[in-house]
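hiii, so i know i said id send this last week but things got crazy w the move. better late than never?? heres the sequnce for the chain we talked about at the cafe, plus the structure i predicted for it. fair warning i was half asleep when i ran it
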Amino acid sequence: MISVLVAAAMMTQFGEKVTPENAWREYPRPQLVREGWTCLNGNWDYKVVASDGEGIVREKVSGKILVPFAIESALSGVSRLTEKDEMIEYRRTFEAKPAKGRRQILRFDGVDYRTQVFVNGVEAGIPHEGAQAAFSYDITSLVRAGSNDLLVRVWDPTEGFVNSLGKQALKPHGCFYTRVSGIWKSVWLEDVPSTWIESFNAIADIDNGKVDFIFDVRGCDPTEEVEVEIFDAASSRSSVVVAKTEGEGGRRFSAKMPKNFLLWSPEEPNLYNFTAKCGKDSIRGYFAMRKFSKGKDKDGVLRFFLNNKPYFIIGTLDQGWWPDGLLTPPSDEAMKHDILTLKKCGYNMMRKHIKVEPMRYYWLCDKLGILVIQDMPSGDSTKLFDFSHANFAYGAVRREWKSIMDDLMAVPSIIMWVPYNEQWTQPCDVLTADMLRWTSAYDPSGRLVDGPSGWRDFEGGDKGHSDAERCWSKHKGVGEDESCDVIDRHDYSFRPTMHAVNPHRVSLLGEYGGIGCRVPGHLWTENAWGYGNTGSDTDRAAVEKKYIELTAHVLGLVKKGLGGAVYTQTTDVEAEINGLMTYDRKVLKFDAAKLKKAHDELCEAVK
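okay and structure toks below
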């Protein structure tokens, strides 16, 4: 193949290694692995088309594109901004060996926004809408032995619609960044039996020493029995338990763990591997024995608990943007670098901020050991505070959030859901409460729900930015339930405050800090800024001192009952320079050992 990569104004060391031959070649879904798959990442043909004034679709530009990088990114080889009236057409061929009793499933880990799929000229199904969640088509009836033609047509309005955006914008400004259109996560073809395991969930119960499995079995015989074999966390050799379903496929069943089972935590990320067989289908997966909950400490203060012990969560706002790949990380190595850097600095958590990562990212979080607070990517940035638009988009938001939760349900590192951030795509009080309560009820493992993060909290939190508008509604009375588990304040002052402890929800500082630090030679733009200052400070030692002083202030809040804190942010992102690392990941601005010492003091304060 001929390389189609182009150089970005800023490249990471990981992006510099990407070629069409090595780009995202690993199995895309480590949580559920099966043999018999074909990677469809690599060079595709593409066209950008748009209709003219008479409604006739005409080609505007064409060439080669490297999937799964979005067309706007440098790593795609195109680096072209799309317009709202344009569509992207992707085309390639693939080889297939259809056989009797086998199904061919075409899988997309993420495409932004509306996707149509054609195999050998025939549309595979109704268009999929949504930017974040995975989707698939059963194309068995459309494929033929040998070479097959695949056409994927994508439309992405970015703004002015009901789609999820996160921080994308047609014109980047402030905390909104370069948009991402089209295929931006892996594409692959899977060969499965006529009855197959589509997904699973493993729900750990450490109090009773068991794990409950839920399998979604698809195909001609969804009542086919599923057999599970669990292996010791330290090896893949010794089997510790075998369990079988009874009755209808997909029902919940339990497997008893040995008495000395190992717990999962950021400090000791023990994972158990398993195999599951259903008829002729066989998959490999993993799970963790861990429990994240809320409870009262020895002083009667409501706090977070990990594995039944009080646990302070300290992490970063992690937006997952890359100068060369935009929302698509360059590689496993790149993702691993970010996670390990956070751990080296003493963080035990990240808040995955209004983005859903590729599934391999969450596998690395599970494997390396870091807690994840998962946001729902918000909607149109031009209508963030428009309640009528939020009501209009409500159904689309709920549907996509369900799909995201379905994708991520089996990820043990995820401890908390965040349906709403700072009023973005948030409707009225009644619909907000419905979303929060549904989120809690839909997760059978009982993960906590934060909500809303920042302001527009109708049950005792902030109404808006200013202190004068704080606590605009009272907490519910004793014996009454509130709609979620966490009360979340955002405060970028140098002396942030917290919501007072209350009997319903744990107090979280969901965003704080954002101290700007300019590193010459590693800037996306000279017009850079930070939340905590003007972003003109180039004295890294002085900024580090401010960070340590800020962390000492947070320690005082911990002693008053603060349950966790999220510092903004992991890396610089485009014009924002308040990251621990520069946007190109080439400079860690502070001394990791000093940060770890300060963070360890926060965690020790709640033990």
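btw The longest strand covers residues 57-67. thought thatd interest u
miss u guys!!
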